[in-house]
Amino acid sequence: MTNTIAYDEVLQNFKTLLKLNNLKYTTQRELILKIIYDNDGHFTPEDIYNLIKESHPEVKLGIATVYRTLTLLEDENIVNSISFGTQGKKYEFGITNHHDHLVCLKCGNIEEFYDELIEERQEEIAKKFNFKMSNHVMKITGTCSACQAKG
Amino acid sequence: MTNTIAYDEVLQNFKTLLKLNNLKYTTQRELILKIIYDNDGHFTPEDIYNLIKESHPEVKLGIATVYRTLTLLEDENIVNSISFGTQGKKYEFGITNHHDHLVCLKCGNIEEFYDELIEERQEEIAKKFNFKMSNHVMKITGTCSACQAKG
DNA sequence: GTTAGTGCAAATCGTTTGCACGGTT
DNA sequence: AACCGTGCAAACGATTTGCACTAAC
Fold this sequence. Notes:
Helix content of chain A: 40-55%
Strand order of the largest sheet of chain A: 4-3-5
Number of helices of chain A: 6
Largest sheet of chain A: 3 strands, mixed
Largest interface: A-B, 38 and 38 residues
Distance between the termini of chain A: 28 Å
Radius of gyration of chain A: 17 Å
Number of strands of chain A: 5
Structural class of chain A: alpha+beta
CATH superfamily of the largest domain in chain A: Winged helix-like DNA-binding domain superfamily/Winged helix DNA-binding domain
Number of domains of chain A: 2
CATH architecture of the largest domain in chain A: Orthogonal Bundle
Oligomer: homodimer
CATH topology of the largest domain in chain A: Arc Repressor Mutant, subunit A
């Protein structure tokens, strides 16, 4: 899903958020944000860690920082995550149109879709239950067309 | 969600399934099935383990057996699970109308709902992507009315 | 200079596995 | 008797945490 916001703007927002919360603007935090923005897709914390190690071998980085930063970014709704049962989470850039996921259980690939009707119904249902919705996830699991073809 | 099938029938089906697969009918397996059937709700493997330890202290039971049996029951579509990111899964009795979940992030409580329109759209979307759907999950996260009241 | 952030390694949590023993068929 | 299922404890993988050091403010 294509980003609908320029990176400069994202970065500005992030810096402002950090300031508001007495947090510091560090190289690591910026790199993690940028990697997720640039690489359209869904990544595990380890993926992100490896991507940064490759592209910026000169920067010191620990996996713990990746986890800490992802939690931060998710709290601020800058990234979203989808979970895979016990097998951890994948993260994606979050400032984009909301969308849902088709997850292939064979190859782990994720396709995205957006359906206005489903979005509306979700709002209605939350209202009906007097439930303050902070997020919603729709995930269809199964076998993607490529994997069906492979047999 | 109220069970739509009598326990006797569930148990019969389960025994048949075991036989068909050359598996054995054990006290542990029966107890796990019964606990999930009887206690309408959503349980972690540990919950189930503790419930059985309490109600049947005379039975030998290890947590590993609970995991193994839950996997078995889920494969057979006798129970369903919903996942909570890193924090594991909760299981519920699965032979009932399909339904989706409202998950409260404060108290962990789960409410259920069913929406015909959403079900239909899911089918259509899978078809559109030539995706062979094995399962689908809709989860609305947020704050339940009780927790909103508490502030 | 003060405070927050970091890497590292150890700890933790949920889950899985190898193995010898016990129960079901 | 044959074979599967079990408990136990060790192994595991993802994530979190304590701590001394470093960087941002």
